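Worked problem 6 (solution included).
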Amino acid sequence: MNRLTLAVLQACPTQFDGPLFREIARAGSLDLTVYYLDTDQTGQCMDQELGFAPNWDIPVTSGYRQVRCPQGFWRRLGFLRRECFSGGKYDLVIVPGYGRLDLALLAFLLRSQRLGMRLDTVSIYPESAGKTRLKRAVLKLLFPRYSAFHPVGSLSEGFLRALGISEDRIFRFPYAADNAYLRRASEEFRQRRNELLQDQQIPPHHFVVLGVLKFVPRENPMELLRAFHIFHQQYPDSALILVGTGALEAEMRGYITAHGLSGAVRLVGYARYSELPKWYGISNVFVHPSVREPWGVSVNEAMACGLPVVASSLVGSSYDLIQDGVNGYQYPSGNAEALAECLAKIASRPDRGRQLGEGSAHIISSWDYAATLRSLESALHKIETESIPRTDFANHFLAARDAARRSQAH
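Solution. The predicted structure is:
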């Protein structure tokens, strides 16, 4: 029996999807090809907020079949038309959202290939009524072209249902971390916690709050600083470790100095991916204070490392991964006092953090690569027998154009 064939299109490699693709290829139930639209080199994946390419220092492009698309709009368009969107080459081609003009054009004009759409769109951010109406009108024209939809979580599912997408066309494709690797690596560092804290001049008995984030307005590190300042006044045997860099660093250092927090706050700089388990392993709680984050994979990572998690109400993953009082807390974004109270709840009892951390490990165990593979298999089996239109408007147009050119040449 032939394996079902799947193509996944995305802009460039990531530290969480690379290991997932490798696991899918290893499992062998699907014949997977990944197309990188912009680059297959991690060193070229520029982070516009930071101004440099992340250094993940883990293998993210090996162990699975991958293709790098030609660069340039028209060259890439022609390549994808031949390779992915014409002739039903794959049982399913999954595209990354609806924001790329090249993919939207191909999807609308070419009808002989079943398509899926992965998306992380959520409706928890302010948007003008006019923009909402326009977006919904465009998507209602585009969405019927897709056989399946692959939201990353429940908020994205709600967005799809609001647009009339039926449940039998929805198959989750969540952001997931390499839980086993993170759990194992963080535990190794946890065994050396006292030593590693001493390296940071933090007493081993201190309650350690961790933030892994970009120092940019969207990720809101100032709110975490303000909340820690409030918390630290009540719990002086505490420390804050901030892993990251960005444009707000000078402002953050100014706040630390002005409020006498130099002895309690550590800005340790940007960390490569292999270094993150160290910071998760030596901390007592992880905080994600972003004001705009459709998901937030660092929440997955912290939970895989057995940490309680606190996240703002504008972090999408908090609606799926955080159960208040079970593994952490969600707090109203913009309310530093509420965030400080969440930290106090965890620090107030010695056994509280351990219980919440166990809750995190339990919850995240079902958000793994195996669950994603099962969801993709379900999508492929569901749509395998569906009939699809065979009229490729773009192919007719291009054939007519080529015929006209030939006649002119003669």
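Discussion: The domain at 179-364 is CATH 3.40.50.2000 (Rossmann fold).
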